[in-house]
Amino acid sequence: MTASGYLVGRGLSDVTGEPAGCGLLGYGKADQISRGLHTRLRTRAFVFVDATTQERVLLCVSDLPLMFDSVHREVLSRLKVRFGDRYTEINTMLTVTHTHCGPGGYSHHHLYNTTTHGFHPITFEAIVSGIVEAVERADDDVAPATLTLSRGELTDASVNRSPSSFARNPEADKAHFPDAIDPQTTLLRVERDGQMVGAVNWCATHGTSMTNRNCLISGDNKGYAAYYWERVLSGVDYLAEHAPGFIAAFAQTNTGDMSPNLNRGPGSGPTEDEFENTRIIGQRQADAAVTLATLAGTPVEGGVDARLTYVDLGDVTVQPEFTGDGRVHRTSRLMGAAAALAGTDEGKGFPGFKQGRNRIVDALSRQVIYRASPSLRDAQSPKGIVLPGGVMNRLAPFVQERVPVQLLRIGRLYLIGIPGEVTITAGLRMRREVAAVLDADLADVLVAGYSNAYIHYVTTPEEYEEQRYEGGSTMFGKWEGPALTQIAVGLATAMRDGDKVGRGTPPPDISQRRRRSAKQRIDEPVAGRSYGDVLSAPRGRYSAGEMVEVSFAGANPNSNLRRGSTYLEVEHLDGQLWRRVADDGDWATKLHWRKDGAGSRITITWDVPAGVALGEYRIRYHGDISEEGGLLTPFTGTSPSFEVV
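Above: the chain's sequence. Below: its structure in token form.
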């Protein structure tokens, strides 16, 4: 297909939430509260248009822990105001990288706000506004382009964190993954006039290189991969007003049982330093993608297409061709398990629970719950039930049950949008079935996990039996994976035949049950100090590899999240001018926040990179004072200069 066959637009925006006092989402730890910023979180949006028919699809990949109906609904609402019917629930996929160190509190369902200390309207607004902004920029950027698809293998960025569950699968499935991981790395590159201007990479590994002890906002390994390709290799200036010359998104696939912690322990592997592990695993993904970009690849031809339906996942009749045992089965209302509360090997959960069998809970479930309900036993056994989510949903919105399942086509590439964490074998079964319907290569059909909503995990029935964390977190029971496969096949059949699909019944709008305005915060200075005063100065000299540290009398950073801007700058004296060489979006910088009496103490560090120009440097801190009446007064603090020798 020539460049006129597709029009493609790219957009990049900041979705960083509150760096101070907001519960981080992913590990479910109430004491993991944001206390600063390491790397900013970003959304990368790509619009793909068939130049002949003008049909389009939109893909947004966000550096966020999870995607919720709250964000999906509000983003689509704002896009409708801005673009009419150009971007709808059918042709728009909102997916995330699943970092476990992003601010939470942006769901309208209670479960996900219990450990984030409630709903956080400031973070919610930052996420929604950032995604919409990225889409607006991508829409403005639409221009003729060529698309190329390349595939390779990456074997040193993941490990199977539930090998005993994986081992229960049939030999034919296990043979597809001889190392018990999904090594496929897929690159879709966008070129204009022979120059690569964008890329989307798909590779399965969890966003858990950073541990639940970390309290700095971080994009984790996929955030670093995008940063490395964009900033380090391509020189993108995230603070520039114009659109960047190159955008790289690193998306998830069937990541449910894939861990980046190669030693199967929190923050362990390949080193024992969680920051270094994040960088290494991220760079391995980036290096693999960059290598794919040098290959000829396969030209992408054909149009774009999309299908989506909403399904009540707790009430699906699954046909025998999908269940694997030749019998009809049904899913059930969602049930939380003891194994889910246990956490994983890379992030321990609540004490008193363990992965696998929990003798007392399991016995009570067998003798009381399952004996009273044979249908529930068929759907959920041997799960040790501790949380009847379906019952709780009748009292208040707890977990989403009516969820979207989606299928996007970009030429020969097909993305199955699943709102959960799919294991590699459950994903393989979906991909095989959909590929067979569409007569597509298996490698060109990908599960796009974490898309458009969230339902926790998706396992095979065999893996479910093991009741490790993944099986325990398969909320709708043993037949949930086959049910989703059946639904995906229905979407694929409709797409193949050119038929529409029924919308189904979307979830109720519960947004009005959440307080949408943020409480006014009034700043106070550190006692005896003025805003911007240096509390702790840097030394006079540093060498590459050393860390510069300076503390300022500051303000609460939540008053102004500085989306698209920065809290800090590292500046180098170039002749008579100070020039910025790093900001708060750079890997080498960190911003730490803590209370100092009634005020805020801001500590900024800069790891002096190898090869940095020698000479005089300084660090500047930008804050905003929140005053009565909602007034924000900006200020800047500047460190004494220091030498890099």
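The two ends are 54 Å apart (CA to CA).
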